[in-house]
Amino acid sequence: MDVLRPEPIEANGVATMYHTALAKDEFVEWSKSYDKSILQLLLFGPSHRAVIKRLRSQFGDRPFRVLDVGCGTGVFAERMRTALPHAEVWGVDLVSAMLDKGRPRYAAHEGRIIPIQGDSERLPFATASFDAVTCCNSFHHYPHQDRAVAEMRRVLVSGGKLMLIDGYRDMPWGWLIYDVCVAGVEGAVHHCSAKRFRDLLAGAGFIEHAQRRHPGFAPFIFNEASAPAMVPLPHIGVANDAAQRGRVTAESAARQRN
Ligand SMILES: C[S@@+](CC[C@H](N)C(=O)[O-])C[C@H]1O[C@@H](n2cnc3c(N)ncnc32)[C@H](O)[C@@H]1O
After folding, report:
1. pLDDT, tens digit, for every residue of 228-254?
2. How far is CA 112 from the centre of its chain?
3. Which of 10, 135, 173, 178 could cross-link with 169 by S-S, CB 3.0 to 4.6 Å?
């Protein structure tokens, strides 16, 4: 199979035409100038500040472990560490060149920022590893967005927080920027509508989903949700009464199946 060829993908009723190889090509090139992009000012900075504000209100002075998916050169990871000194920040990114650019930044934080190369759709972490998962300005690159959200859910502890931001395209200006201009430059990336975010997060079992729209030159949508303490079992042959009453987690049910 030619892994470099984009393939149409049907996920949750929305077809996308994108492949991670396109993201790799783009970000290997962009890594050279990424930290100086005007988008740092217009979009990335404001979105980082919005997430940090919510993390502070959720975790206060408590120590917590956060995974930043699509962490890039670590600008956001460093901002989290500076603003929230009790945070242990892990970052995962598909593109080694982006992580390499962030090395001096990571080194300055002496093991409190841990970068890992990996794909958002197959997170290289054990189940229930993190108190929070953040994802800023990266989600539109994921060909199977439902798989990425399921992975974010899997690596969160019960009650863990998801904070997911991407460009907001449900109004004419946002549509022009993201669906026309950004898609024109980046290829068939997919910026989700607010409804699609709601469907994706509900489909992965997230609860308490709140959405905030941030207007501005580069508008973005901030999705915040919680991983439930228990998740309902899928309807499988081995489902039993206890599971039906929600006393068995999906994970232990998976163990029963194997
Ligand atoms: C626009 S940058 C955003 C970086 C950072 N989150 C920020 O807000 O500054 C998007 C990042 O997503 C990464 N990325 C794209 N596809 C990915 C995937 N499937 N899994 C993990 N990271 C991915 C890219 O390599 C890039 O570093």
Report:
1. 986 555 554 433 333 333 333 334 334
2. 20
3. 178
**Ligand 1 atom nearest to CA at 47:** 8
C-alpha span between 124 and 116 (Å, rounded) = 8
| Angstrom distance (rounded) from CA 5 to CA 131 | 36
| 80 falls within a domain | yes
Domain limits at 139? Answer: 8-227
What's the CATH number where 156 sits? 3.40.50.150
Helix (H) or strand (E) holding 116: strand 113-117
Measure 120 CA to ligand 1 centroid, in angstroms.
Answer: 9
* Substitution site in 32, 37, 93, 146 for ligand 1 pocket (most atoms within 8 Å of beta carbon): 93
DSSP one-letter code for 32: T
Tell me the CA–centroid distance for residue 31 and ligand 1, in Å.
11
Residue range 89-145, pLDDT digits in tens: 999 999 999 999 999 998 898 889 999 999 999 999 999 999 999 999 999 999 999
